[in-house]
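Let's practice the habit of predicting before peeking. Look at the sequence and jot down your guess about where helices and strands might fall. Then scroll down.
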Amino acid sequence: MSLLFRTVESFPRGRTTEELLVLVGAGFSHDARLAALAELEGLVREGRVEKGRDGKWRAVSRRLAAGLSAATIKPVTSPGNGQDELIAAPAQFSRTLASDQEIPRLDANAGDEGVGHQAVLRYWRSALRADPRGATTQVGDKHGVEWALISGRGPIAPSESETITVTIALDTLAPSFREAIVRREGNENALAIGWPIAVTRSQGAPAFQPVGLLSATWERHENDLVLTIDADDVLVNPEWFRNAARQTGWRREALAELFNAEDGVGLHASDFLLKIKDALASQIRGRIAGEDLASRLDASSTGIFDAAALFLPTDSSFTAGAARDLDVIANWPAERVARTALARIFNFSLQNDHADIPALNVGALNGEQTAAVRNACAEPLSVVTGPPGTGKSQ
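Done guessing? Here is the structure:
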């Protein structure tokens, strides 16, 4: 008898999906959550558990289970949000010309006489937090909590010198998602918009992965949530590569290389869409254009759908670790900063008591690599550049 079933059986009055996941130790591990949800789905098919109208799971009585076969017991709901279909909140899309306001220049070299180093560090931290995109996989029971589908007539990505505004009535969003928005208000009001959405299976349970991610800022205007997308800059979700490669026969590295932009930033939406249509034609369900977004998503169907969703930032964002580091460094006194490579950035006098360190060639380094080592040993700040394969890591 599994731990999950024993846990359900131990609470005759029932427990919610989230409560069960915590009780069996799967509340904080993504893989453990997916495994537990898959096991819960299997218990439903076997007729051993059921979900009541109050959203709580209970064990089917032994007498009932003995008198009926698993085939005659229909699951009341799926382990996700209670339905096989996830419903999108309707949204209105509008396009406006981008503002040509001049961006103020920030002189980091002003030192104590100008902008303080702590203010600059916090500015860098805010700039990092403004891009909430990261490796993302979600499950149905988190729909309306950490992510939410939206529908409407796009386009979803702006063209050059253009801004897309997305307006969503707050009362069309799940109460738990609105609460999560309120908790984040006043910080960096940023979220990621995923498009299109890939529906797949992970350890037997439905999983939802945005293929591409756009960065957006948000504000609350009375009864509306208003999003602003001001850059045609699509980053590809790295967690999507693995499933896509397995389902299409691509090598994961080759597929990732196909979607990498040459300049290291995101792709234009038109280029991104063309790559999807060419490389993953067998996975596309319907027409993918970002102009008529799906109003619902079927968790039982797999493939890539012309759907979009809001994803609230989490610690999986690409820049989350760097932002946490900047939070710490921004509280350092000037004396401590002066003992680091940041002294050169902020025009501080370097406070370094260490003697010069001689450069030792402990490997097969060429002349340029040896020069880089010598420079790193002698200078407070060094930059090593070069195209791939030229030995920077070495």
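How did you do? The radius of gyration is 26 Å.
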